[in-house]
Structure formats: C-alpha cells, structure tokens
Specification:
The complex is a heterodimer of chains A (230) and B (768).
Chain A (H helix, E strand, L loop, with lengths): L1 E6 L6 H12 L2 E6 L10 E4 L19 H11 L4 E4 L1 H8 L6 E3 L7 E9 L15 E8 L3 E3 L2 H9 L3 E5 L19 E5 L5 E4 L17 H12 L1
Parallel strand pairs in A: 1-2, 1-3, 3-4, 4-11
Antiparallel strand pairs in A: 5-8, 6-7, 6-9, 9-10, 10-11
Chain B lengths: L14 H6 L4 H11 L5 H10 L2 H4 L4 H4 L9 E3 L6 E6 L2 E9 L1 H6 L1 H17 L4 E11 L5 H21 L3 E8 L8 E11 L14 E6 L9 H4 L20 H17 L2 E6 L4 H13 L2 E5 L12 H6 L5 E6 L4 H10 L3 E9 L3 E6 L2 E7 L2 H4 L12 H8 L14 H9 L8 H4 L10 E3 L6 E4 L6 E7 L2 H6 L1 H18 L3 E10 L6 H21 L3 E7 L12 E10 L16 E5 L10 H7 L11 H16 L5 E4 L4 H11 L7 E5 L8 H6 L6 E5 L2 H10 L4 E8 L4 E5 L4 E5 H16 L8 H9 L1
Parallel strand pairs in B: 4-5, 9-12, 17-18, 22-25
Antiparallel strand pairs in B: 1-2, 2-3, 3-6, 4-6, 7-10, 7-11, 8-10, 9-11, 12-13, 14-15, 15-16, 16-19, 17-19, 20-23, 20-24, 21-23, 22-24, 25-26
The chains are: A alpha/beta (230), B alpha+beta (768).
Chain lengths: 230, 768
C-alpha cells in the first residue's frame, strides 16, 4: 500500500510519518510537495504535523489553499483515507474535511507531553485493531489543540460515534486533569461522516517504538492497512 | 582604481563618534595605521562590529589557546561555525553553544528565540541536520515578578522558535540565583547529525566565484547587536531595544531545508550564517579563512526597505539570512533551490585574487581594507588578573561552624526545602512548553541526567547535557571550571555514554576588571585540566563578557555542553529506580563537603566555604567504572550526585518518574566520621547513585578501577517512604511530600501573578 505524506512549507512531522510508514509498517511512502497537483496514486494521504506557513494568520488557514489540497480534498470526497495529525487536523478542519476547529490551548501555553487517550470507537478504518475503551499513551505537542464545535455538532459527532479518541487518565476516566488543552468533551480525535478522514491532535507516528516510550500508535497505522487492503 | 571616499551624508568622524562605536583611542589609531588614512563612517561601523568583544574575542583569545582541542575523533575544532566529531559508521555530530544574554535581558521572548535561531544556523551551515536543542538558563530569584516575566518570556521564546522549526528541545538546566537578577544568562546549544562526507566549511574559495545573499531580506533590525553584547547592561540598555533582532522560525525552517539541499547539490563551496555583525562578519571571516579577497556591492543586497545605507546593510542583524559562495556558473541553480523554498537569492559580490576586503555601493567604493587584516589585525589584550580578597575570605570560611537551625532536627524538613528550591525542583513547567519528541529520536527527554537520542540506521545513541555550577566557580574558579566539565561528563555517563567532546559558553563579567579576568583565566585553566583528563576536547564555543548590571557581575558561569556516545542502545540507562529489591550503591567517596552547597545557600542563605574538591583523574576512574558496570548489564539505574547532595540524589531516584514513585531503604550509618547533615547534603564530586541487581559485579568493577563503592540500601518499589539511617539520626520522608516539593514548586510560583501566568500576562505586569 502506498502512503503519500504531504510536505507543506513548515511541515516538520512529515519525516516522522514517512519513517513510521516505511520502517515500522514496512509499507511504501512518498513525500507529496505542496505545489504539486499529483497524489502519485497514493492509497492513503497523511497530512502531517508542524507549522505549515508558520501557522501565520491561523493554524492551517493558509495550507488549505495549497495546490495539493485540491487533490487531497477530491481524494477524501471519493472515500480515500486521510490521516490528519496535529497541524494536519487543523488543516483538515480549515479545509472543511472535518467539522469544528482547533483553538489556542485553554491554558495559553504550548503543551508537549505523553498524554493518554481512550479509544471510543473501534469500528473505523483507523481503530479496528484496538479494544474499545483501551487507553493509549501518545505524545502531544501543540499550542492550538483545543477542539471546539457547536453543541449541536458535538452532539451529532457523539451520536454518530465519530468521536474516536478522548483524553483520559490512566484508568480510562475522562477528567479535566487528563485534558491537555481544554478540548470540548475531552475530544482528541474525530472522523468525518463517511469515516475515511481521521483528525487527531496526538501524534501516533511518535508512538511507534518501545524505545521511545510507546508503541501504541502502531495499531492505528496497521488498522488502515487491514481495512484498505480488505 | 578609484579611492575610498566618504559618502555624501555620512557623519564626520569625531572622537565622540569613535567612542560611541566602542573603540578606544588606541584602537582608533590602530585602525588609522592599518588603513594609512582616516576611516569612512562605513569603515568605522565595520571595525566597531568586528573588533567588538563578541566578534573578536580580543580579551579571551590568548587564554582560550590553552584548551585542548584535538583528538582522533575531532573532525572540526574551534574556528568554524560549529565543532564536528566523528561517531563512527561514517556519521558525524556537529554541535555548538552560544549566548544570547543581553538581548534576553531586555526583550526575553525575541532575545531567546533569535538565540535559538542563530545556533541552529551555525549547525546546519556545517552540512548537519539539527536533531536536538539544549538550553542553559540562569535567572534571579523567582520571588521577583520581573524575573518571572523574564523566565516565562525566555521559555516561550525558546519553545515557539524550536517547536516551529521542528527541532526537539531535549535537555538543559535552569538555575535561579540572585546573582543573575539583572543579567539573566540564555545559552542555547544545537546538535546536528551528518554524513562525514557532507561536512562543509565556511571558507571562501575560487577566484571569480560569486558571493550570494540568500534567505530573508535585510532590514534595519539588530544593527550593532554585536557591540551591544559587548558592554555592561545599564539603565540605558532598555533604550537599545531596536538593536534586538526579531526571529521568524517559519523562514528559518525553509532556510534550513534550502541550505541542506544547497550543500548536497554541490553548487556551492561555502556557506555561513549572517549572524552577529551580519554581512560584515560573515564575509570578512569567510575571506580570511580562505585567504582570498572579496568585493561586495551593497546595492545588490535584497533589502526590506528603500534607502538603506551601506552602513546599515553591512551591520544589520536581520535574522534567517545566509551568505553563500557559489560555484561560478551555478548561480541559477542556487536561485532555483531557494525559489523552491520560497526564498530569495542574489549575487552581491565575488571572490577576488587581490588581497583586499572591498565594499562598493554601485560604482562607489565605500570601504576597503587591506588583505585579511580586518580579522587578523584586531587588538588582543591580556588584562591584569587578581583574585578578589573578599572571595578569598569567603572560601576560607568553615561551613561546619554554621549552626544548624532548630527545624533541621527533622531532616525531612530540610530535604523538602532543598527539593523545593527552584534550582533543584522539577522544571517540567518549562519543558512541557518545548516539543521534545519531534523527529522521533528522543529516547530520554528533559528531566533526566542527560538527554539520549537514537542515531537512526545504527544501534548507537548520543547523550547530551549542559552544565555549570556558577557558585562553585565564584568560590574557586579553578575547581569550579573542573567541576563543570566533570559533572557534565558524569551526567552523560549516567545514561551509558562515553563523554566525547565539549562546546563551552563562557559567561563572565567585565574582563577589564582584574577580579573578573582572574575568574576567567582560572576557570578556563580548570576546564582544560578536566578536559585533558577525561579525553573530551573543546570543539568550539562562545565567550560572553560584560554580564554585569550596575550593581554587580553574575557568577562566573562557564557552561559546558557535552556530547557522549552510547555504542549500544541496550546500554541506555535512566536516572530513576527501576526494580523492586535492587541494591542501591554509592559509587565514589563520602567526604561530607558542605562548602558552596545548595544546602548552605537555601537553608542558611550563605555562599561560603571551599567548593568540593575535584580530581579529574578520579572523575575519569569513576566514569570508567560506571560505564563498565553499565556495559556488563549490572546497572538498573544511575544518577549523578550533585546539587543538594546524596539526600537529593536519592530522592530524585525515588520521585523522578512521577507516574511510578519508588521507595527506598538506605543505611548510611557506617559513615560515622561525618556529621549527619554533611552526609545528607554535602556535594562531594565524583559520585553516582546506582541501583543494581548484581551489586557484587559493580563492587568488583569499581575496585578494579580504584574507586570507592558502598552498598547503601535497597529499592522498595511498593513503599511510599524514603528511609535513611544515619550515624546519629535518621530520615523518614514520605514520597508524597518529596514529590509535591519537587514537582509542584515552580508551577505554583509561576501561577502567583496573575492566576494563570502566561508570558503575555506577565508582560503586562512587568510593564506597570
């Protein structure tokens, strides 16, 4: 399977995503340049973390107008899998691929930590190898990670089972202390209506080796593999 | 050939103008002698920057020559943008530390941010991809609201810049002491990784090769930053805010990628950051290294605004700019790479055979210096040195004569206060604001003895640490200099790494004061002794003098940035206790030395006594014994014993891992030749707390290396108490109390004003 990792000016987790795919998953990955219009027949698109366009104006607000995003949006609309991590999540929201927005962390500081998140829905192409209610340890590193949406949208997301990950404590309890950025309802990750676009603030590509503290992110990538291959 | 002539509109050169440019009358005469005429205003500006302390090292050069700089693994020693060492497998590590103290004292956010940016560029211009940042910071007491503003601003500046560029900030140290009240120290270190064959030097070569300015455009910011860094801070310093540069990490990220691509492409022969003294120093230094002449036409430099004078263009310290010597005929290829990254490139000059440094503005010559004398002919001083009588007296004082406080009968009371001392307490408040895991190499992040990063494609890892105890250097600069190196070496060794080489950032006061120059000379001598014994040459660094406020100089603070190498990932070792039932050992001796300790400073408010002795040969033996023990698989954890002594080291082993506290049962009653407080809080050097499942093997190895090693207790993973039996008393410390003292102190202080202190809010407080 071929993963296309988009490099925007200012992307800085493209390299990590690329290596997680090639070294950990053992699959093919290519970098996609933001000025291009060709996804080079990638099966899965990864919008990586970083500070595309310096996060100037608003995180993700400029990147969504990149030439490559037209193709990414078309790919998503056609049901192609898109994994949007951190800045990628912000871009996906700006591009309208996902509802809601990512605002400044509630404590107004950048937060870098290995947080815990609970798997809320295992019936998605990104989570089918996890157990429901399982608590994962995944690093976060962001200044604008507070997920917000209207009450109506939030209710709808919940009702449709589209809240995929929620910040939790070690025992799986959803507490304000476990929420690193003040996200509404402790939401860490959501999928779109069709279930083929996942946006999340934590970095699964950084949780792919016990040597680095956690390999809980591996099954997220493997889930895509089983689902798309099937 | 036309002559250099004053440019219409240039101010007349008067003694007052010369003084304003920081040149002494003697130095001005020297300049006249070099030129054989009076300088133009532009030339005066150039010399003012190049002969500033920051660029010229005029007070430090002779002393620095005494440092060891060579070893088989050193690929590049001092004199380049960064030092480079080989780590085998065809790979090399480039690293350097640099100060940004003065800008940070006036504008903490931009000062710190541009410090990070500058050191990043020094590393990637060697052809290395930056993989880690470290910071060594010194502030006054956190009880002061302006200090909290400086601390919050510096931390945010470091974080915002490094996070955006995508380089993990993995380690460092932060010390709080009234000595740094008005003059904080902000030293940033960058470490990069490269293939040996990609090493490139900033040496202008090839007559006819074009010189290009690439990256950001040149603006009017930061003019005379180098000179500003070379004078004492004063009430007027705030007015020099315009001399502080403004950073743009997004452009830096693009410049990083473009520069590495340029170096790989083979289209260029040299590249250097336009850092301190901007275009002037980068072009003059590249010419000097290559022993060639250069000519630069300032009218071709892309500028941000119209009407900039040659003086301004030459001395601007606008950030994120590079000077490149391209191969003739490859100019378009260079521009193409820059354009890909949305950056500009412009040919602004040429390498010439004539031995001259020439600046033109169109056809008019505005500055011309003979040969490379611009760099080589700068004045060198060997100021007088004399130790301060007051410090001699402080050192002679006997710390054991200081009576114990009544509260100290409860050792737990004392220990809690030490753990809550901001210098010792957890700095997670700061580290949480730094992305420490991007690039997915960070095996051990901030908070341990040293950071550990894996080296992809190998089974190796590198270990990184910055260190310096300024209080020791203040009390005894020779010994303090040794300790700074030895402790950094011990720190990387605790992670399982062999110490390889250092970079240093020498922060001192005004060198023209004999007391300060004495400290400088002695501290460098001590560093040299330790470096020779430990086999860790100095590969470069930076000297920062004039760290003085109207009231006093900072503690002499020669910060060491150490790089160590772990040959096998299986040897990576952590600080905190790991396994229940492991035996706890003290590697190294018990000597009960309280002089210069954190205990005396925090509990008694005293900075007195001789700092602990430091015998570099013994330090080497301790490190060798530790590494052999680790490599034999006998070590579960290893933690350096430093600030706060054995009691603090043991506590940290119990509580560093906040998710998994571990108790311990320790018996120190056999050390009955010392007082209980000296056993607990003395800071004798060359000591490591080890936990081991094979203590006999560690003992045997230590014995073979001639190092003391004592079994002192057991790890009690499920106990919630640290229990220590002493010759005359005992310590029973509930972990919850230790944890709270250690982990809650700084967040609680930083939330004092206002309720949730952010840098922006603290700025408001500071402004009122």
């Amino acid at each position: 399977m071929k993963f296309g990792v988009v490099t925007f000016p200012g992307s800085n987790c493209d390299y990590d995503a690329y290596h997680a795919i090639t070294e950990v998953l053992g699959e093919e990955a290519i970098y996609l340049w933001h000025k291009d219009h060709d996804l080079q027949s990638s099966d899965v698109i990864i919008l990586p973390g970083g500070f595309s366009y310096g996060d100037y104006l608003r995180a993700g607000a400029i990147a969504r107008f990149s030439p490559i995003m037209q193709e990414v949006i078309a790919h998503a609309k056609a049901g192609g899998p898109v994994l949007a991590i951190c800045n990628g999540f912000q871009i996906a929201c700006e591009a309208g691929l996902l509802p809601g927005a990512l605002m400044r962390n509630s404590h107004l500081q950048f937060v870098s930590d290995a947080v815990r998140m609970r798997v809320e829905n295992t019936d998605t192409m990104f989570t089918n190898l996890y157990e429901r209610g399982e608590v994962l340890r995944i690093p976060v590193a962001h200044g604008d990670g507070r997920f917000v949406a209207s009450e109506e949208t939030l209710d709808q997301l919940e009702g449709d089972g589209r809240v995929v990950f929620r910040y939790a404590d070690a025992t799986g309890k959803i507490t304000p202390q476990a929420n690193p950025n003040g996200s509404e309802r402790n939401i860490a990750g959501i999928v779109n209506d069709a279930g083929n676009v996942l946006g999340l603030m934590p970095h699964p590509e950084r949780a792919c080796s016990p040597l680095l503290g956690s390999s809980d992110g591996v099954r997220l990538l493997e889930s895509i593999l089983t689902k798309v291959a099937a | 050939m036309s002559q250099v002539a004053p440019r219409p509109g240039d101010p007349v050169i008067t003694p007052a103008l010369v003084a304003e440019h920081g040149l002494t009358p003697d130095e001005f005469q020297r300049l006249q002698g070099m030129l054989g005429r009076d300088p133009t205003f532009t030339e005066l500006g150039i010399i003012s920057a190049l002969w500033s302390e920051h660029c010229s090292y005029k007070h430090s050069r002779p002393v620095l020559k005494s440092l060891p700089t060579e070893a088989p693994h050193v690929l590049q020693g001092p004199g380049e943008n960064a030092g480079v060492i080989s780590i085998g497998d065809g790979l090399a590590v480039a690293f350097k530390i640099e100060s940004h103290n003065h800008p940070s004292a006036v504008e903490p956010y931009q000062g710190a941010a541009t410090g990070v940016g500058g050191i990043l560029r020094d590393v990637f211009t060697m052809g290395a991809r930056p993989i880690a940042m470290l910071n060594s910071l010194r502030f006054g007491s956190l009880d002061d609201s302006r200090v909290r503003y400086l601390f919050a601003g510096v931390v945010k500046g470091i974080g915002d810049y490094g996070n955006c560029v995508g380089i993990p900030t993995v380690a460092g140290e932060i010390v709080f002491d009234a000595a740094y009240e008005k003059n904080p120290l902000v030293n940033a270190m960058c470490v990069g990784l490269m293939h040996e064959e990609d090493l490139i030097r900033a040496k202008a070569e090839g007559v006819g090769n074009p010189i290009m300015a690439v990256g950001a455009r040149t603006g009017r910011d930061g003019i005379h930053g180098a000179s500003f860094a070379s004078e004492d801070l004063s009430e007027a310093s705030d007015a020099k805010r315009p001399r502080i540069q403004v950073g743009d990490p997004f452009t830096e990220k693009l410049l990083l990628e473009a520069s590495l691509e340029l170096i790989k492409s083979g289209h260029i022969v040299a590249i250097q950051d336009m850092g301190a003294a901007g275009l002037t120093s980068s072009s003059a230094e590249m010419a000097e290294r290559g022993d060639v002449g250069v000519t630069i036409d300032v009218s071709k430099v892309p500028t941000r605004e119209k009407g900039m004078t040659p003086y301004e263009i030459l001395l601007s310290e606008s950030q994120e700019r590079m000077l490149v010597v391209a191969r003739k005929g490859h100019e378009d290829a260079v521009s193409e790479i820059l354009t890909k990254w949305d950056l500009t490139a412009a040919v602004i000059g040429e390498v010439i055979s004539e031995p001259v440094y020439r600046v033109t503005e169109g056809s008019r010559i505005v500055a011309e210096f003979p040969g490379s004398r611009l760099v080589t002919d700068c004045p060198v001083y060997s100021p007088g040195a004399r130790e301060s009588a007051a410090i001699i007296e402080l050192r002679a004082a006997d710390p054991s004569s200081i009576p114990e406080l009544a509260e100290e009968r409860d050792h737990c009371w004392t220990l809690e206060r030490l753990l809550a001392s901001p210098t010792i307490a957890s700095k997670t408040w700061a580290y949480r604001q730094y992305d420490s895991t991007v690039r997915t190499n960070t095996v051990v992040g901030p908070g341990g003895d040293a950071a550990v990063l894996r080296v992809r494609g190998t089974n190796k890892a590198i270990s990184l640490k910055t260190d310096c105890n300024g209080r020791y250097v203040y009390l005894d600069p020779r010994v303090g200099g040794r300790i700074a190196v030895a402790e950094a070496a011990r720190n990387v060794a605790c992670t399982g790494a062999r110490p390889m080489a250092i970079t240093n950032c020498l922060n001192f006061g005004n060198p023209t004061r004999p007391e300060v120059f004495f400290q400088f000379r002695e501290a460098v001598a001590g560093m040299g002794e330790a470096c020779r014994a430990l086999g860790t040459p100095v590969t470069g660094g930076n000297v920062s003098f004039y760290n003085e406020s109207p009231t006093s100089a900072v503690y002499p603070t020669p910060v060491i940035g150490m790089v160590g190498l772990i040959d096998d990932l299986a040897h990576v070792t952590r600080s905190a206790f790991q396994h229940d039932g492991d035996t706890i050992l003290l590697l190294g001796e018990m000597a009960g030395e309280l002089g210069g300790s954190e205990y005396l400073a925090t509990i008694h408010g005293e900075v007195v006594g001789a700092p602990p002795r430091c015998d570099p040969a013994r330090e080497k033996a301790v490190i060798d014994a530790l590494l052999e023990s680790i490599q034999s698989g006998a070590v579960s954890s290893a933690h350096d014993c430093s600030d706060g002594g054995l009691a603090v080291a043991l506590s940290e082993c119990c509580i560093l891992n906040i998710d998994c506290l571990s108790g311990a049962e320790v018996d120190l009653s056999s050390f009955n030749g010392f007082t209980d407080r000296a056993i607990l809080f003395g800071e004798t050097q060359g000591r490591i707390v080890i936990s081991s499942a094979a203590p006999e093997r560690v003992m045997e190895i230590a014995k073979r290396h001639g190092v003391d090693c004592t079994q002192i207790g057991r790890v009690r993973r499920h106990s919630d108490i640290l229990e220590v039996t002493l010759p005359k008393s005992s310590l029973r410390a509930p972990l919850a109390r230790l944890k709270s003292a250690y982990h809650d102190t700084i967040p609680s202080i930083m939330s004092r004003t206002p309720e949730h202190a952010t840098f922006d809010e603290l700025s408001q407080v500071a402004a009122h």
